[in-house]
Amino acid sequence: MATMLPAEWIKNWEKGGRNEFLQLCRALSEDKSHDSLSFRDIQQALYELSSHVVRGNLKNEQASGVLADIIEFREDMPSILADAFCILDIETSCLEEKTKRDCFTQLVLSCLYLVSDTVLKERLDPETLESLGLIKQSQQFNQKSVKIKTKLFYKQQKFNLLREENEGYAKLIAELGQDLSGNITSDLILENIKSLIGCFNLDPNRVLDIILEVYECRPEYDDFFVPLIESYMYMCEPQTLCHILGFKFKFYQDPSGETPSSLYRVAAVLLQHNLIDLEDLYVHLLPGDNAIIEEHKREIVEAKQIVRKLTMVVLSSEKTEEKEKEKEKEEEKTEKPPDNQKLGLLEALLKIGDWQHAQSIMDQMPPFYATSHKPIAIALCQLVHVTVEPLYRRVGVPKGAKGSPVSPLPNKKAPKQADSFEDLRKEVFNMLCYLGPHLSHDPILFAKVVRLGKAFMKEFQSDGSKQEDKEKMEVLFSCVLSITDQVLLPSLSLMDCNACMSEELWGMFKTFPYQYRYRLYGQWKNETYNSHPLLVKVKAQTIDRAKYIMKRLTKENVKPSGRQIGKLSHANPTILFDYILSQIQKYDNLITPVVDSLKYLTSLNYDVLAYCIIEALANPEKERMKHDDTTISSWLQSLASFCGAVFRKYPIELAGLLQYVANQLKAGKSFDLLILKEVVQKMAGIEITEEMTMEQLEAMTGGEQLKAEGGYFGQIRNTKKSSQRLKDALLDHDLALPLCLLMAQQRNGVIFQEGGEKHLKLVGKLYDQCHDTLVQFGGFLASNLSTEDYIKRVPSIDVLCNEFHTPHDAAFFLSRPMYAHQISSKYDELKKAEKGNKQQHKVHKYITACELVMAPVHEAVISLHPPKVWDDISPQFYATFWSLTMYDLAVPHSSYDREVNKLKVQMKAIDDNQEMPPNKKKKEKERCTALQDKLLEEEKKQLEHVQRVLQRLKLEKDNWLLAKSTKNETITKFLQLCIFPRCIFSAIDAVYCAHFVELVHQQKTPNFSTLLCYDRVFSDIIYTVASCTENEASRYGRFLCCMLETVTRWHSDRVIYEKECGNYPGFLTILRATGFDGGNKADQLDYENFRHVVHKWHYKLTKASVHCLETGEYTHIRNILIVLTKILPWYPKVLNLGQALERRVHKICQEEKEKRPDLYALAMGYSGQLKSRKPFMIPENEFHHKDPPARNAVAATVQNGPGGAGMPTSLTINTAKLEESTAEETDKLKEKSQGTVKVINKTVNATPKVTTSNGNSASNSKIIKEKDDKEKSGKEKDKEKKEKIPATTPEAKALGKDGKDKPKEERANKDDKPREIKEKTPKSDKEKEKAKKEEKASKEEKSKTIVTTIESKSVAEKEREKEPSREKDVAKDMKSKENTKGGEKIPVAGSLKSPVPRSETSESEREQKRRKVDIHSSPSHSSTVKDNLNELKDSSTKHYINHTTPTLSKSKEREVDKKDLDKSRERSREREKKEEKDRKDRKRDHSNSDREVPQDSTKRRKEENGTTGSSKHSKSESPSDSPRSNEKEREKSKSKSSGKEKGDSIKAEKMEKSSSGSKKESRHDKEKEKKEKRDSTGGKEEKKHHKSSEKHR
Q1: Do 1269 and 1248 form a contact (C-beta atoms < 8 A)?
Q2: What is the DSSP string of 712-741?
Q3: What is the pLDDT of residues 188-220, one digit of tens each?
Q4: Measured between alpha carbons, how far is 1394 from 1396 in angstroms, rounded to an integer?
Q5: pTM, two decimal places
Q6: How far is CA 91 from CA 55, 85, 625, 882, in A?
Q7: 1132 preceded by cis ω (within 30°)?
Q8: Nearest to 1217, CA basis, from 1289, 1305, 1332, 1290
Q9: Half-sphere exposure of 195 (CA within 13 A, CB side)
């Protein structure tokens, strides 16, 4: 410890040490307190000074002199000095050195005048005192002190209690009970009390007790009694007061005792004034804390038991017993619980405003235990009232309300009243948290707190405060949210149906963002109700009541039930709605009554309902799919439907729901789009349905008024408000465009990401739902957003596609309204700028406006596709196609007329109605007239608009199609990038596409081949149908229906055809150089040939339909049935095609009845409609003239129909094959087998026989053969001409190649069916290469194994080219050989081979050309069209020739018939035997997709006269049977069919397939069985191929 007096000071005491010491003491004496450091320092300084004297370092005089100087520095300096002497006394008395003791004695003696004797006598040892002469004898002194101590501490003083000294106590009570209003003070009374105590020897503790008793009786005199007790306590020990109070409380702790409130109050006041400590008093109070905790636990258990009882199903017999038990329990409960003194004290503390002590008592108890007692809750509420009063008066009182002011508490120690929101944080929020759900006891305070919250939110949301303030406000905001969560909402639950509080609370809630609100509702629903026994009970009672109401809710009692629901919802909406929604999810018939019954809800409840709906939707435990995984769960559908209805009917905020859907889409889940779809449908009245009638569709192409009147199923009225609400929600939260983009992206996500393991049917459903919702939502935005809003939100087309990866169709769908808006506004600007009124001026301005708006779009679209695309179609054409709508192309006059007539009828009905009051009549008539005027005005406006658009298109059309590659390629691009994506986008778009094609044709657009376009559409439907979803199939069907309507119109009447197609560039058939020799026929397709083409299209449709129906694939069958249903008005028109379809559909009905009921329903529906159309079908010869046209017209006629596609002859092969290659890939698939059959036939028989379209082979007779030969030679000449012509245009070249190549392909077929398939349908580069390789291989194989065949064929062709006359001889030669025996081909081949040694070279050339063609025809249908339509050659196929063959005399026919039958029977027997052996081989072959047909099997086929080969084919090719069976029907119906020649196995096979009417039934049955077996294997092969082609797509 550092010394206070340095040694230097002592050495130089006189010089400076003394002064230094004085300064030090003066400095230290400035702090007068006893417990400071300076006090200790002075003690040390004096001690050190004295010890220096004792040691002899300082003289006695020097020390006493300086001590005399410093003694005045402090009042207590003598005492300090005495302390120093006391310590030195002890120290020196222990020392042996006498000198030091003497020095000490001298020092004390010299200082006796400074320190009083009494002080020294207290401090110093008796011996020292004796030596100093202050006492006489130390021994006597000691004895005396012992006596005094004994008297003080061990003798009990005798005081008088009440009965011993009633006079004294009477005087005391008189003193305390006197009137205190005058100038009597507590000090005065205290003096009197002291006198009384002394005079009457009163017991001071009893006096204190009496003072407290009087205080209890006179509580208003706090200001008098508190100071009195405080002063009195100076005379007592500190614990005395606490003990006396404790005894008082103990007195009332009997079971029957009740502690008076006055005692609680006195204790509270004494606690508040810190006269007693809470800890000291708390131990005297009952019950103990443990007992309180036990009671709390017991309450929770009881609450849970009540819940269990309410949720349990109790049978009636048990009910009575339960009730009796409950009564007994209640009786027990009614016995009064013992008094809880802790709560009584707590209440008193709260009443006087002692929050600190109250808080510490509550902290000792379980949460909300104290406030669950009503008196305490009310006391605490009162304290809060007082505390918030000034702030509430300033900011909370509503305008016009007075309110009753709350006076502040009288005592000054109460919490400070709040003047600002910041003050609320100090105490009020804390008090409210202790109150918790029990704020419900004071609705007025509840309202005040909510209004303060509202006022705070107003201030919080207004900007302009400083950063620090903002941070403070943030903290306050979080406090407000906590109070709402912990206090306001739970309290609302305990309030008894107080609608006003609910509305008051909504006033504050609506200022919160929905995220906070929903968070609060979530806490309220899922956590709050478990926090307190009371809330647990309330929850159970609410559910019980909800069950009661919901059981009785029907459409009839909506009002009373609605009122009950309303009542229940005011306090506990979350619980109620949760239950109601669970019921709706189970029983969807509750939706309507529930929606109607919700009209008595408060705004808060509607908001809670929105939250509960979202929570129900997001429930992770619920499966969104039904157990079969093919449909969306019914609970989700019910909820979506309920959403739509409830959001439309009531003003509920939508933001949360919309954001939820957006979040789900972001997460790649599209199930919940169902909700958006329903909400938009109900709120905006925009419905998306595939079931629209054509009338409705037509109305949808008009203006807004016509759409509203005639476009929808329900007359959707009064959607103005609800659609406005939906629009505002979307714009306020910036969800309009994001939702569109997310939906557009999700369409593909459904398939490639979300689809995954899901059932194909469900994936299709989800895709449709996503797409339909996009269309519906986009439609809503287009019709409801203002132009500025729309344009501001939708980016340009290239940004949409390239940055947001929006599919092109969706991107244009979103941009289309924007272009229309921009063009119309530009047009209006231009009109205003220049007041020209002429129509031409207007059109010119319109075109200028279009150019200005669309020019940037033309630039933008270039980036959407590879540059190669723009070689064929121009960006302008592309943009024009995608930016126009049906509204721009045609005016639906009939629709306008229909609606106007309806209104006229309505007006007439109003006039005729006698009951209607006249003023209502007038109103209704006015309404109808106004509507009528609007419609007529709209029609006129649209008419002008359409005329302007058509003018614009007329000017644009020359730059549309550039055709830098080929016309065929142009059509491919047009279909691929424009028609196909858009025709399945929506029903109106489907109609638009068909109209647009017709429009492009009517505009005589250069480089557009209408024929090619229609041909590609009708020929290639299998893959398009197979890759559609259900709704897309419906739209595709509509598109085909409109296309067929146009074609049927042209087909129906020569005049119409000549007028609309006669000299149009779209119907040019010859697309070659003008050097065509002679040009002996006009290049236009004439009417009759057009009819043949149409028949071919019908045939193609039948073939595709039958194929799809026979695949057994769910998607194929469903989609084709949907398409067929849609095109029923125009197809089938031809009887035999209709019958073929009918049979297939009937078969589906039988097969699917048990397996797939949805397909069965579709098929039955179609079947019924088809039957009703049957009377309108016509025989084939009425549909088109079947007899062949004049020779010279051969080149121009179209190869038509089943004849070509069906049965082979030596020459039919060329023409038919050409035509078949035109069919889309599936046709190729089907007909590959036919091709093979033909080749085999040819090689086996080497007979150029003609096969009739009926499938009847021409008879054996020579007359027929000769006729055939003549016709053939004529055709060959034509063909020769064509082949010689130098094809300058690329198409022509390709076609030329095709023409030559087709027979080659058939040969390839013979060896390798699958190879042929691949060649015909090259899909990817790899496949093309494979095709080439396989062709080479097949070529080598041919040369080895079937050289003769090839040669025979090539020779036949050469001969045709060189010398037709020689061909006749050859034909005769073949025939004669064939007559001898149908199967010997080798000699025949030889006879053909010898004359022409050059056949091999010509062969190889053709082979190379064919390869080129194969490569060229990479688009799935390009070869198709080239062969079929561009050339349209080999038109009068043997199909027509056939009809000349039945010139045979009937007798001859009969003979031939008999021979045929005999031969066929023999052969069929042989064949059956051999087939048994071959079946296994065949199965193996087919399972390998017939990759290689073993050579030996080929030989065997030949040996069997081609029978097995052809039968194999029918097996590998189930669909190819189907058209033949159609033909079968056709033949039966005609019954003219000439008998079949069975001279050769092929013809027998054909007879099997087309089973002409002349055959016997038994044989037909056998064939049927075989056919079914073949079908089964063929189906597999077909499917494989189909899959690969779909992948390519």
Answers
A1: yes
A2: SSS---S-HHHHHHHHHHHHHTT-HHHHHH
A3: 999 999 999 999 999 999 999 999 999 999 999
A4: 6
A5: 0.66
A6: 12, 10, 99, 115
A7: yes
A8: 1305
A9: 8
